Every structure is written in C-alpha cells, then in structure tokens.
Amino acid sequence: ILNVEQSPQSLHVQEGDSTNFTCSFPSSNFYALHWYRWETAKSPEALFVMTLNGDEKKKGRISATLNTKEGYSYLYIKGSQPEDSATYLCAFGDYKLSFGAGTTVTVRA
Amino acid sequence: NAGVTQTPKFQVLKTGQSMTLQCAQDMNHNSMYWYRQDPGMGLRLIYYSASEGTTDKGEVPNGYNVSRLNKREFSLRLESAAPSQTSVYFCASSKGVGNQPQHFGDGTRLSIL
C-alpha cells in the first residue's frame, strides 16, 4: 500500500480566480502519476498521466507539474469556472495504482 | 460510444447472499480493474487483470473473487456478502497498466443489510 496524500482536502475559490493543490507520493521507485477529475454523479475522468521528472501537462485551463525527486505534483486551475467544481484525484504506482482521497474544489460564481 | 459499462447500477443484498457485478468495455483495452470507494477514502484497488487470462490481487481482495471472462469482460463476485462490503464499486479499463489512463464505469452502489 503506497501512501498518497492530497492537500488541502477541500477548497473554495471565487469564479475567475486561480488555484492550485498538491499530491504527495513516495519519491522512491517512481513509475507514473495520474490525475483524474471526478464530478458529482459521474465517474472519474482522466486528466493527465505523468511519467518524467519535471513533466508539465496542460489541458485547457488546467495544468500539472511533477517532481519525482521530492515526491510531489501540483495541479493548477487558471481562471476557475463553475464547471471546474469537482473532486480531483491523484494516483501513483505501476501495476497497482494507489489513489489519494482527493481535493474537492468548489467554484463560487 | 459506451466505454465501460457496469451492471447493475444499484443493488441491496442481505448478509450472506452472493452476487456478481458485471463489467464490460468496448475500447479493446488490455487491462481491467475493480475498485471500491468508501466515504473519506480514496479509490482502493480490489483486483486487477493486466491482460486477458491473468488476474492479481489489489489492496483489498478479501471477500471477493474475479473472472476475466474474455478481453471485454471482467466480473467481480461476492460469495458471502458482509455489511463491511457496502460500498460503491467502480470498474475501469486501460490500454496497459501503470502509464496509461484508466477509463471508469459509472459505478455500482451496493448496500448489504
């Protein structure tokens, strides 16, 4: 069982503001780091899979960075919109993914 | 464009009853997974199948069995349901393990009384 921690557990952001949050994972034996968005009443949807130290991925207003040496990844949301309200999950591992408990983002109009 | 289909969506069982959750994917993916999701916890891997014909235990396999029926289908069986198995169950699939994104079904909400 790999310890994957996400912080904060939840956050509220005003529409138009930018925000970011963290995923921490073991820095040894790195294989891959996944980010998923999970909207209420839907199933998790893949955002990014990151495999290289220093990797940066971008999808629209959402981007992620990866530091495998120190064991963390940041997810950034630029200019938050109400449709960005969701729980964002990170997961770490190879054959067996260990998921964090998620960061729940609420965007207030 | 179905993706990953899980059946049933909801089920209520009595303690000791058995049940099979069905999962099918139409994306020609090699790998399939079963997770459970409990309040305040992340998704926890029950079993996975890296490729057709293989299955392996995940983090929380006790009380469950799986069958990779063919490349499309991966079922999860509860032989003797217990209240601790009340959860939401998700099936997922991916092209390969580890560095490929997983595609999730809509989940099965299972209550055991």
Q: In angstroms, what is the radius of gyration of chain A? A: 13 Å
Basic shape of chain B: globular
Summed over residues and divided by their number, the pLDDT of chain B gives a mean of 94
So how many helices of chain B?
0
Count of alpha/pi helices of chain A: 0
Percent helix of chain B: under 10%
Order of helices and strands of chain A: EEEEEEEEEEE
The number of strands of chain B is 11
Query: How many beta strands in the DSSP annotation of chain A?
Result: 11
Q: What oligomerization state is this entry in?
A: heterodimer
Low-pLDDT segments, ≥5 res of chain B:
none
The helix/strand order of chain B is EEEEEEEEEEE
- Rounded to the nearest angstrom, the distance between the terminal CA atoms of chain B is 35 Å
Largest interface: A-B, 25 and 26 residues
Uncertain parts of chain A: none
Decide which structural class fits the backbone of chain B: mainly beta
Mean pLDDT of chain A: 94
Strand content of chain B: over 45%
Q: What percent strand of chain A?
A: over 45%
What structural category do the secondary elements of chain A indicate? mainly beta
